[in-house]
Amino acid sequence: MIPASAPIVVRGTGSYAPEKVLTNGDLSRLVDTSDEWILTRTGIRERRIAADHEAASDLAVRAGAAALAAANLPPDKVDLVIVATITPDMPFPSTACLVQHKLGIPRAVCFDVEAACSGFIYVLDLAANLIRAGRFHTALVIGTEKLSSILDWTDRTTCVLFGDGAGAVVLGAGSPAEAGFGILGSHLGSDGAQADLLHMPGGGSRLPATPESLGDRMHFLKMKGREVFKIAVRVMEQSALDLLAAHNLEPHQVDCVIPHQANLRIIELLASRLDLPLEKFFINLDRYGNTSAASIPLALDEAVRGGRVRPGDLVLMPAFGAGLTWGASLIRWS
Ligand SMILES: CC(C)(COP(=O)(O)OP(=O)(O)OC[C@H]1O[C@@H](n2cnc3c(N)ncnc32)[C@H](O)[C@@H]1OP(=O)(O)O)[C@@H](O)C(=O)NCCC(=O)NCCS
After folding, report:
1. pLDDT at 2
2. What residues contact residue 251 under an 8 Å CB cut-off, 6+ apart?
3. Ligand 1 neighbourhood includes 117 CB (under 6 angstroms)
4. Fewer CB atoms inside 10 A, N or C side of the chain?
């Protein structure tokens, strides 16, 4: 039995980015855009694009295997697999079940969560609480996306922003010696009234695929970018402040912020509203663009492996995305 007060710690992290690099220059040959426009408006220089044979589960398997290796954990010790994605291999079965099979995890409860770019923050909180409740011992938590499969490559207002990738963490109950470390808590929010700001209209039960829906380009991501921008800054700031206040902490006590990597201008505004120097933020969106549910775990893995996150550090991870959804997680790194 796991005591309710047991710390829930990250045992290992992993990530995977497909080989193919698509630069802003490459995009300027596809749509009416330029490296200068994309870089100054977003901070993105390039993004990764999965190969035709790679689906979201394949990216997830690479990230998940790396996280298990970092945790030095054999697959048979995992009893929970949760995948956050808006680009599952197919509507069903869940991508988590496909990942379980490919990783050779013999016995686990596996399911997907769909909370778009906030997906990883949602599944991290869910997995931590399921372990804390004593239901499971060890969780593999993954964010994975092949957003290139739902982008309209004729729409310059969206196709320049996103990319493909995956990130994963292994979570487990810590020992009494690890008290005070691990996932300290999360703050989550949703507002379905704003669903139409960022969505994909086709392909579900509302609008199944028909020749007309395909012709009307309904099976692609649609976004009202300017509206999303304003809300993103506000909800990420509020989530971060509420979460820190719930733990009697102030922003300046945070050692590293790993934000959802959507737009450098959003991150800069967040930094100024939290009164934190940009140097405290780990940023890799210049190389990956927005990889939705994969963005935070991919950045976390790079920050950990690159020595930007060290034992004892207080790590804040704010996110926002379609739904609308938003949230933040706080980890004392162990
Ligand atoms: C999308 C975003 C980069 C657009 O930047 P912006 O400064 O708001 O730009 P606007 O939408 O006001 O467009 C300004 C002009 O650039 C044009 N434009 C849009 N995309 C362009 C592109 N890729 N290349 C060149 N011009 C482009 C627009 O058509 C518009 O032209 P107009 O003034 O002639 O109408 C920005 O709104 C954003 O990042 N929003 C948040 C999106 C996001 O993070 N979504 C993910 C949520 S998880």
Report:
1. 60
2. 240, 241, 244, 274, 275, 276
3. yes
4. N
Catalytically annotated residue among 117, 159, 256, 263: 117
CA of 28 to the centre of ligand 1 (A): 15
**Residue 30 structural domain:** 8-178
198 with 327, same domain: the answer is yes
Q: 132 and 199 in one domain?
A: no
Which atom of ligand 1 is closest in space to residue 42's alpha carbon? 3
Q: Is the CB of 294 under 6 A from ligand 1?
A: no
- CA of 162, closest atom in ligand 1: 46
**Bridge partner residues of 21 (DSSP):** 48
271 lines ligand 1 (CB under 6 A): no
Q: What's the pLDDT at 267?
A: 98
Nearest CA to ligand 1 atom 24: 33
24 is catalytic: no
| DSSP annotation string for 33-73 | --HHHHHHHH---EEEE--TT--HHHHHHHHHHHHHHHHT-
Contacts of 1 (CB under 8 A, 6+ apart): 134
Shared domain check, 210 and 75: no
**Where residue 251 sits, what CATH number does that domain have?**
3.40.47.10
Structure pTM? 0.97
Residue 1 lies in a domain: no
Ligand 1 atom with minimal separation from the 33 CA = 24
**Secondary structure of residue 118 in the 3-state scheme:** helix
pLDDT score, position 23: 98
CA of 240 to the centre of ligand 1 (A): 26
